[in-house]
Each structure stands twice: as C-alpha cells, then as structure tokens.
Amino acid sequence: MINIQDITFSYTKHGDDIFNHLSLSIHPGKTYGLLGPNGSGKTTLLYITMGLLKSQQGQVEVEGTDVCKRSSDTLQELYLIPEVFELPSMTLSEYTKTYSPFYPNFSNEVLQQCLDIFQLPSDIHIDRLSMGQKKKLLMAFALACGTKYLLMDEPTNGLDIPSKKQFRKAIATNMTDERTILISTHQVHDVEQLLDHVLILGSPSQDASSNTPSTVLFDVALPHLSSTLSFTYEQSSIPSQNSLYTERTPLGFATISPRLPDEEETPLNLELLYNAVQNGKIPTNITTK
To answer: Beta-strand (E) ranges in 146-241?
Structure first.
C-alpha cells in the first residue's frame, strides 16, 4: 500500500502551495486513474510518490517505509514512466543488461510478450526509434520489471490509435493481484476500460485563478460508482429533472443520474463524470468509497 499522509508542497519557499495537508491511500491490486485539470498537481504527486520530490510537510510511505529514505528495497518495487524522457543510445539488449539487474522480478518472457503486443522487434537500437516507439519500448520494459507499483504520466500521449489499443492489452495482460498501477492522464477514453478506481484532483473553490491548493475531489472504486450512478444519453430537447449533471450533445443530452434499484448498470462515461466532479455536481454521499 502507498500512504500519502498530510503532505504540503510548493516549488518555492514563498510560492503558492500545490498541496496543503493532502492525504490519500493507494491500495494494492488496483488500476487507478489520476485525473485533474492542468496545474492541479498530477505529475507533482507522482514525483512525490516516487521520492523524487520531497514535500515540506508530511510523508509518503510505500509498504510502511518513507519513500524519501530511497532504500533499495523500496525503489526496486517502484517504476515511473514520465511523460517526457530520454533513452540512451544503445540496443535494447544492452539497455536490458544495464538496467534489469536492479529489479529482482524482471522477466525476459514478459518483455518479449510486451514487445510482441507492441509489434516491436527485440533487436532494436533505441535511438533509431520514433518517440511513440520509444514510449512503447519503455512501457514494455517497465512491465517486465515486475514492480509492485507502476506509475505512468500521460502514457498514451504520442501514441496512434492502434498503439493505444496495444497499450490497453499490455496493461490488462500483465495486471496481477499484487501490482498497483497509477495512471495520470487527460486522455480519459484511452484508459477508462482499465480502471478499478478513480482519483480526481482539483480546487475546491472551482476557480482556476484562485491559486487554491489542489485537493482530492473524488476518490471512488468503480464498482461502487456503477451501483450508485447511471450514465445515459437522452434524445430529448430538455434533460430529465432527476439528472445530477447534463451536457448537451448533437442528439440530446448526456446525463448522470442516481441509479434506481431496478435499473441495470450502465457503462462509465469517465469524461462526463470528470466534468461533473469539477463542477461540484456529484453529492458527497455518492463519493463514499
């Protein structure tokens, strides 16, 4: 488990706080979606969780150990795929030989499986790849490392449509009860089929210009959400009166409503949910985990 306890963070001593007394628990065996507007601190939170940034107050514990201690036992169970990165000029075999020994659960079989999913050859020279191919290669290597915690920052940015499908297959194929995946993204449609849990960051003031520290607006397991809310499309000129949130579409309205006891579950519309949360339209009692 990752416990983020009462963290306060700003990038400068007298700058505005990104977080102020933020707490959050990330449980094992789940795939989390981390959503939020630009500037809400999604990337910052990933780097704090990795121990690459240190909060001015509070701490992050991974399996009960303060991540800022940078112990090898903790770090070998964490892997971060940043949105922007550089890879060295070497072959994949050289890269694997250099970096895989740090991860005791590294699997060449998983690496080859992911390369096959991403349709990448195993005799790659890394600096001859496009940015999208490099991203797929790094995701393949990350999954092969077998870490308990895999953090991804905008993993589908730069991927074409077939590659996004490959990404979902690679994640789903290698998800286990022991692994936790935290995906920070704006591309909600790319990941909503993968998620077990949704975290949404934002300002409680709903005013992007207020410089209010970001907090967790929404922290809900999707099975709870499916039993509580219905996501529907209504072909009508006005939305239904019991809707919690609506958005006009060319054919009517996309709506979120309380799910009635006799109603069937509906597919999640993660973008609609996100907009509803950011607009303060989801009641507090619905967000009970």
So the answer is: 149-153, 180-184, 197-202, 215-221, 229-234
Name residue 71's amino acid.
S
Phi, psi of 220 (to 5 degrees): -140, 135
Write out the two tokens for 209: 């210009």
The count of other CB atoms within 10 Å of the CB of residue 254 is 20
| pLDDT tens by residue, 161-188 | 999 999 999 999 999 988 999 999 999 9
Nearest by Cα to 187 from 32, 33, 49, 45? 33
Short-list 251, 248, 226, CA closest to 239: 248
* Cβ–Cβ < 8 Å for 158, 131: yes
For residues 200 and 12, what is the distance between their CA atoms, to the nearest angstrom?
25
The residue among 101, 98, 110 whose CA lies nearest residue 142 is: 110
Angle at 45 between CA 68 and CA 104, to 5 degrees: 55
